[in-house]
């Protein structure tokens, strides 16, 4: 489900492992045996970050080995400089030209090819034509070694960028390896190993110790422990009892177990998480979009300025020397290359997404990293967000026979996935239930249906009010969560349910306040319950007795007051509010599919403290991205002025381009070492 936003960034192609294996970005894959002359190579613009292969396929070692021509070119250049400059041995001009041409072609032939194809398509203003023009100009005025050096260092910069992107993607693409490619299914003729996609709901699968669970399932074995790190970021074992849900991607730790498949492979939580991760780079942050657009304007402007530096002095300088001013123009061209911005900035955002994913937080786009830095109000649902959503029946009060009352109520609640309903069903575990008919779920109220021929209503007090059924006034004073029941149009009794506040909820609220963020809780539970929980946690404002539309109204009121807010929820009735918020956050463990699909950020382990971690990830990313922007623009501005004045040489120009890009990349690496 795609959210509608006024500032929704343009959709870009998502990163996908299989797709990356087929795509060749601008002929700069350099992998042996690949065809770099495919016509569609040209269709990728490096200013959008696609000029080189950053897919990381084959690993860093193979990337380095595949650039043998570049290394040979570097050896030729260093050998020539050693002989001619250090040992001061005179090298014959034809030999020098031959060596430098060979080194130049080895290092830059792919860049030259791309520049030529771009020119044929009337695309003159890009880094490939810019770099080719500058280096050929150096050859024209006899600065062979400098021309070769510029091309070599440019290509080395691109290699380091590829290695950097390769490294930054590992934490995210590692998720793609957690989905098993086979599963052992229990069949009448014996166990059979099949592809998980071929398994069907209801199949019994066998999982050995150390194996990954391939499909969302129900545990049939009495108990088992699992490593859930791939889904939640938590490394501690999670012990589950018979009947518990086990998700694809979990690793069985201690004994052979049997599971019953409950969800098709393509619909499993892990498959949806992987889709989210793959789509995460599809939405670019406003800063990225600005830099991409800026580069498209900036490059041709500097190109023409370089031309002006070369030509215009002819009309104003008495001792004008063409080669001298051409050299200054070439310095200007090399400096103007926008690599430091167009590579390091997306890399920074990708690092932020990777940092969050390692901590069990999935951002559905780098734009939401920026959004989280601007949030000043966090609105939270209560059940499943601040509380565990694991309810236990505390008290049963009825004017009917208790067992009959519970049998009827649990039979109706058996069609619901609400935590309160599950508590009632669990209380009747092992006892025979009826199949309800004519069931209707009344949002924010409860359930209506027939059980064993009797009309039942089960929900909150608003449900009985809606159907004009009277009940004792003292029930309104009960603070706990309550399920009231009417049978055949008459009040029949109630069940009280208790929930438990999550261990890290109070600390999460304190951390939000420390960041200057206002906290608000919205709940469908009674206002007395909401106020009690809010007081215990130190929440600024709390509202109870809210229907889904009531939550929407409250959130809209905060937005109308100019608040930048994030809403955190887990239930299907939270989906509209999640969509309305500036940043919608879903609790991915207990969360409904609708809420997870609508959300911008998914917290996989359901911990409220991860909300603060998501904000910190955004702030860290934004800080480093802007450091890179200021670094790149400042150094380039200084060296551009020096180049125009004839002070800077091509060596300084190389530093301003490749050197600054490498510094920015190293700075972006810091994101991956941060703790949130």
Automatic annotation (TrEMBL):
EC number(s) on file: 7.2.2.12
Basic and acidic residues bias spans: 1-33, 44-55
Sequence segments annotated as region (Disordered): 1-59
Gene3D superfamilies per record: Calcium-transporting ATPase, cytoplasmic domain N, Calcium-transporting ATPase, cytoplasmic transduction domain A, HAD superfamily/HAD-like
GO molecular function, one term: ATP hydrolysis activity
Compositionally biased intervals (Acidic residues): 34-43
Record's subcellular location: Cell membrane; Membrane
Keyword Cell membrane recorded: yes
Top-level division of the source organism's lineage: Bacteria
TM segment ranges: 68-87, 93-112, 297-317, 329-356, 624-644, 650-669
InterPro entries: ATPase_P-typ_cyto_dom_N (IPR023299), ATPase_P-typ_P_site (IPR018303), ATPase_P-typ_TM_dom_sf (IPR023298), ATPase_P-typ_transduc_dom_A_sf (IPR008250), ATPase_P-type_domA (IPR059000), Cation_Transport_ATPase_IB (IPR051014), HAD-like_sf (IPR036412), HAD_sf (IPR023214)
Keyword terms: ATP-binding, Cell membrane, Hydrolase, Membrane, Metal-binding, Nucleotide-binding, Translocase, Transmembrane, Transmembrane helix
Catalytic activity: Zn(2+)(in) + ATP + H2O = Zn(2+)(out) + ADP + phosphate + H(+)
P-type ATPase A domain residues: 179-278
Primary location class: membrane
GO cellular component: plasma membrane
Family: Belongs to the cation transport ATPase (P-type) (TC 3.A.3) family. Type IB subfamily.
This protein's name: P-type Zn(2+) transporter
Native source species: Dyadobacter luticola
Phylogenetic lineage: Bacteria, Pseudomonadati, Bacteroidota, Cytophagia, Cytophagales
């Amino acid at each position: 489900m795609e959210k509608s936003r006024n500032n929704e960034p343009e959709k870009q192609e998502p990163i996908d492992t299989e797709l990356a294996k087929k795509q060749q970005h601008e002929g700069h894959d350099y992998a042996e045996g690949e065809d770099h002359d495919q016509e569609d190579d040209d269709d990728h613009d490096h200013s959008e970050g696609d000029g080189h292969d950053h897919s990381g396929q084959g690993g860093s070692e193979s990337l380095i080995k595949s650039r043998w021509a570049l290394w040979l070119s570097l050896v030729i250049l260093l050998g020539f400089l050693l002989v001619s400059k250090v040992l001061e041995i005179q090298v014959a001009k034809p030999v020098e030209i031959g060596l430098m041409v060979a080194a130049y072609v080895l290092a830059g032939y792919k860049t030259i090819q791309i520049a030529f194809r771009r020119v044929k398509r009337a695309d003159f203003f890009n880094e490939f034509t810019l770099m080719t023009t500058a280096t050929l100009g150096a050859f024209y005025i006899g600065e062979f070694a400098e021309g070769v050096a510029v091309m070599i260092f440019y290509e080395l910069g691109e290699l380091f960028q590829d290695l950097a992107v390769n490294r930054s993607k590992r934490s995210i693409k590692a998720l793609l390896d957690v989905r098993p490619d086979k599963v052992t299914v229990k069949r009448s003729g014996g166990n059979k190993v099949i592809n998980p996609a071929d398994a069907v709901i209801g199949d019994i699968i066998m999982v050995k110790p150390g194996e990954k669970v391939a499909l969302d399932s129900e545990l049939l074995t009495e108990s088992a422990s699992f490593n859930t790190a791939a889904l939640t970021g938590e490394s501690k074992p999670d012990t589950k009892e018979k009947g518990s849900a086990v998700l694809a991607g979990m690793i069985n730790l201690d004994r052979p177990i049997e599971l019953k498949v409950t969800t098709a492979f393509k619909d499993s939580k892990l498959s949806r998480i992987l889709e989210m991760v793959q789509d995460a780079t599809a939405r670019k942050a406003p800063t990225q979009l600005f830099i991409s657009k800026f580069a498209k304007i900036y490059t041709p402007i500097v190109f023409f300025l370089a031309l002006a530096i070369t030509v215009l002095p002819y009309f104003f300088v008495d001792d004008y020397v063409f080669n001298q001013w051409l050299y200054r123009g070439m310095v200007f061209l090399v400096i103007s290359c926008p690599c430091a911005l167009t590579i390091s900035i997306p890399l920074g955002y990708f690092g932020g997404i990777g940092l969050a994913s390692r901590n069990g937080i999935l951002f559905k786009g780098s734009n939401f990293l920026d959004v989280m830095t601007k949030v000043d109000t966090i609105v939270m649902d209560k059940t499943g967000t601040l509380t565990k959503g694991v309810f236990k029946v505390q008290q049963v009060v009825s004017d009917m026979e208790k067992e009959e009352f519970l049998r009827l109520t649990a039979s109706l609640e058996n069609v619901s996935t609400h935590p309160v309903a599950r508590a009632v069903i669990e209380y009747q575990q092992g006892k025979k239930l009826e199949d309800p008919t004519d069931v209707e779920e009344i949002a924010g109220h409860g359930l209506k249906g027939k059980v064993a021929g009797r009309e039942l209503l089960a929900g909150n007090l608003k449900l009985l009010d809606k159907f004009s059924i009277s009940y004792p006034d003292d029930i309104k004073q009960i603070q706990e969560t309550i399920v009231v029941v009417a049978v055949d149009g008459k009040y029949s009794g109630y069940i009280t349910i208790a929930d438990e506040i999550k261990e890290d909820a109070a600390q999460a609220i304190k951390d939000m306040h420390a960041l200057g963020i206002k906290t608000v809780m919205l709940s469908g539970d009674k206002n007395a319950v909401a106020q009690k929980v809010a007081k215990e946690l130190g929440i600024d404002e709390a509202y109870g007795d809210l229907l889904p539309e009531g939550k929407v109204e409250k959130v809209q009121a905060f937005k109308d007051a100019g608040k930048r807010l994030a809403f955190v929820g887990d239930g299907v009735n939270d989906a509209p509010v999640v969509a309305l918020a500036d940043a919608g956050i879903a609790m991915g463990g207990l969360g409904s599919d609708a809420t997870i699909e609508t959300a911008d950020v998914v917290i996989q382990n359901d911990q409220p403290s991860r909300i603060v971690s998501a904000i910190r990830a955004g702030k860290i990313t934004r800080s480093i991205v802007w450091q890179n922007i200021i670094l790149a623009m400042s150094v380039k501005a200084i060296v551009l002025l020096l180049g125009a004045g004839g002070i800077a040489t091509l060596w300084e120009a190389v530093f301003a381009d490749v050197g600054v890009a490498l510094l920015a990349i190293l700075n972006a690496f810091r994101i991956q070492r941060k703790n949130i």
